[in-house]
Amino acid sequence: MKMRWGVGMLLGGLMLLAGCKETVPSGVIQPRAMEDLLYDYHLAGALGNGLNYRENYKKEAYLNYVFSKHGVTRAEFDSSMVWYTRHTKELSAVYKSLQQRMEKDERLLKAQAVRRESEISVSVSGDTVDVWQDRTLCWLTAAPLTNRLRFDLKADTSFHPTDRMELMAHFHFIPQDGRQQAVMGLRIQFDNDSVAGITRTVTASGPQRMMLRPDSAYRWKNVSGFVYYPSADSALSGSLLLHDIRLMRYHVADKASSADSLRRP
Length: 265
Fold this sequence. Notes:
This protein is α+β, with helices and mostly antiparallel strands. It contains 7 helices and 9 strands.
């Protein structure tokens, strides 16, 4: 009798646990499959960044190949992403796993991604350094706690008054035919507490960048910025995936200093 009662309690407990676990509907791409698809999706996006304007048609071919490889249509991908953005627990699990995977393979990803021809060419003296210190992949949704990426870096002696800063990232609005609007900003605070800043609105998927050229003789105190995915209506669904986030610091030679050095014997 005791054995039967124990087996009954065990079965009842398992049924209760099974009933409490939320499963992904059969019509939605399952978590592991979604992670694999997103991994290839963003590799294709990174490869597309290396194409010049004459080869833009290849970007669509890359994405079509990814969907074909995973046996899904673009419509199935978009509808699945809508479901995940409405179920933050499942979305967070996929995002966390994907982030760890992409960070592990970040060097390979960067090696495969060719610089766009339109990328700024830096020929000034001094170092060109990516000073980004956070994750290079970030998912933003319309929810108040996940709709903004912020950063704040304390400037050290390696920052010069004549330096330039450039914030760049690859934007993916999901779904592609949904609401597409985000705001990115970059700000420099100087040691006299004056501020120089710039903002811009992004309305399309693809590589985005903004450069700040401060006109100040004061030393830098900190560099901060953000990417904001606003929601005018809580009923709107959608999300914004950022990858290959970089914050480039370009050293620019001081013309006056260079001229003085040339006059010295």
